[in-house]
Amino acid sequence: MSGPGAPCSAASSAAEIAAAVAALGDPARADGQRRFFKTGPGQYGEGDEFVGVRVPTLRALARSLRGLPPDVVDTLLDSPVHEVRQLALFVATANFAKADAEARADWVQRYRAAVARGRVNNWDLVDLSADPILGGWLLERGDHRELLTWAGSADLWERRVGLLGTFAFLKAGQPRAILDVAPLVIDDRRDLIQKAFGWMLRELGKRVDRQLLLDYLDAHAHAMGRTALSYATEHLSADQRTLYRALCAPK
């Protein structure tokens, strides 16, 4: 196995980059990834393909691809191979962060299109991109309303994008985005929505205001799923966690 190294550059074609990712793969690791990311029939990652490349290796390769043209990134996002799509999102996130206003607008539109066509389609792909790209773009504009559209979707990944996009606002000390998204997701008992919802509520308490979290839980713990509540209360005291669990609705 060669290192992430670097026959690839920003001048490489999508086919060359995909071949480099495949060459870095490990079949035994790929087997474990397929199980971990639930790729079996009826599971959330059904049919996704893995070649077995570690995330640090993909990040290193992505650093050599900064400046990759957006059209090449789009092509990579349409790959059936999970790690190729993941690499494309690492590159897109880095390029978005360094771009001027016009290019950032183009990157965020391409990201929206990729989500809509089902290419940001596992929790790790959503989590590495929704906050810095979509969330960051909306934060700059002081308007989180687009996140409500994504969070209101019945599609698992679109809904998680809406949730994770609120993280950019929470990091900036702004609670309104997650509090407005919350009513759209509180009744969703899918595990990956429960975890994301609870995680964002926990960040509300950690990064913005502990009392805002407690006020939300006082009003809504009875309607939350147990997984979301567990994540949301992770940093509270044992007595507080016990109190809110007692209020929580059964699954």
TrEMBL record:
Coiled-coil segments: none
Native species: Gordonia phosphorivorans
Alphabetized InterPro entries for the sequence: ARM-type_fold, DNA_alkylation
Pfam families the UniProt entry points to: DNA_alkylation
SUPFAM superfamilies in the cross-refs: ARM repeat
Entry superkingdom: Bacteria
Protein name (Swiss-Prot/TrEMBL): DNA alkylation repair protein
